Amino acid sequence: MIKNFKNKKVLIMGLGLYSKGSGISAARFFVKQGARVTVTDLKKRRELTSSIKLLKDLKIRYVLGKHSVKDFKEADLIIKNPAVRKESKYLKISKEWGIQVETDVSMFFKLCPADVKIIGVTGTRGKSTTCSLIYELCRGLERLQFNVFLGGNIQNSPLNFLEKLNKESLVVLELSSWMLESLQRKSPQIAVITNVMPDHLNTYKSMKEYIKAKALIFKYQNKDDVAVLNYDNKICREMGRGIKSRKIWFSLKRKSSKSKLLKFSKLLGEHNKYNVLAAITVAKIFKISDKTIKSVLKKFKGIPSRLEFVREVGGVRYYNDTTATTPDATLAGLRALKSKKIVLIAG
User: Fold this and answer.
1) Is 272 helix (H, G, I), strand (E, B) or coil?
2) If you average pLDDT over every residue of the chain, what do you get?
């Protein structure tokens, strides 16, 4: 693996539109490392104007509105956007030429100091909420108060804080199935799976293939690592059979797995109870006190676009639930509101 990037030809495949997202962050990171960076994207320059402005002071070559086969053959390293499909003909060309292909997340795992503790969270629904709450709970630890980092699929590439890490650091990562597919021989020491339901079946050939991708979060764990799973989700229970690490289950249906602290959460809906319970389970692994957990739960209002209360106008309450992109997620939001008078604006 390349570790010294000075003068290496690094190709960023997919710039993206998020200021701290994988493409923009990777470009910035590798320029700083002294690499010769090329950004290639099928979007045209006018579509990427805001992203290019963020990198205007950096020496970067752009190939926009197309990809060049030559770039994929001559690169020393390719960093692909996690959303780029593995069937891409350009990635196949790179493989044929023996070019190393990574994502920002897989590169982070390879470059991250071995003594940094990583909490990884995946699942079909609830990843971002669970990650954000785990982050807030861990910040309650006095000894780690100024050294907890949040990144991954939550629009913040971990390359943004890689150089700030030391043995006292704790990293919370939201990991999509595409990100997990890029990991090689390394898993988070604490791996959380919120649930698994039908999703992304326009990308995966079958539900079985999708489940296999999610299970990669545990693949390289050892007996000293921890897997936190949703007992009430049938697919999670089945996935648990093949896990080598120590398993901790959370459940709303089993009294032994349910926490009395749930009542202090402000979040609406049963689906959010599962998210909160998963976060509490992780907090208990770090021996975070009930007092701290209670305090954080009382303050935590959730994150944008997840059943987010916008305002009340003329007696009508408006909620933004635009991340509810599957039938299961939409139904969960509707049930959480507990009202017979709902106008659903879908699409």
Assistant:
1) helix
2) 93
Q: Is it the case that residue 149 has pLDDT exceeding 90?
A: yes
Distance between CA atoms of 166 and 113, rounded to whole angstroms?
Answer: 7
Count the residues in the chain: 347
C-alpha dist (Å) from residue 336 to 99, 107, 262, 268, 308: 48, 39, 15, 6, 12
Residue tagged 């940094």 (tokens): 116
Are the C-beta atoms of 278 and 284 separated by less than 8 Å?
no
CA distance 157 to 196: 24
DSSP string covering 316-331, please? EEEEE-TT--SHHHHH
Q: Please answer whether residues 160 and 151 qualify as being in contact, where contact means their C-beta atoms are separated by less than 8 angstroms.
A: yes
Q: What whole-number distance in Å separates Cα of residue 326 and Cα of residue 136?
A: 27
Residue 289 has pLDDT above 60, yes or no: yes
What is the rounded end-to-end Cα distance, in angstroms, of the chain?
44
- Bridging pattern class, strands 9-13 and 77-80: parallel
Structure tokens at 152: 């991954």
For 82, phi and psi rounded to 5 degrees? -55, -25
pLDDT at 145: 55
Residues 62, 63, 66: CA angle, nearest 5 degrees: 155
What tokens appear for 186 in the block?
């390394």
Per-residue pLDDT at 184: 86
d(CA 257, CA 253): 8
Q: Which of these, 154, 157, 197, 173, lies nearest to 306 by C-alpha position?
A: 154
pTM for the whole thing? 0.92
Tell me what the mean pLDDT of segment 200-218 comes to.
88
For 50-83, write each residue's pLDDT tens digit. Answer: 999 999 999 999 999 999 999 999 999 999 998 8
Q: Kindly state the tokens that stand for 277.
A: 């319970």
Banded model confidence at residue 260, pLDDT cuts 50, 70, 90: very high
Residue 2: predicted pLDDT: 62
- SS3 state of residue 127: helix
Tokens, residue 215: 């299970």
Work out the angle at residue 193's Cα, subtended by the Cα atoms of residues 189 and 198, and round it to the nearest 5 degrees: 145
196, two tokens: 């698994």
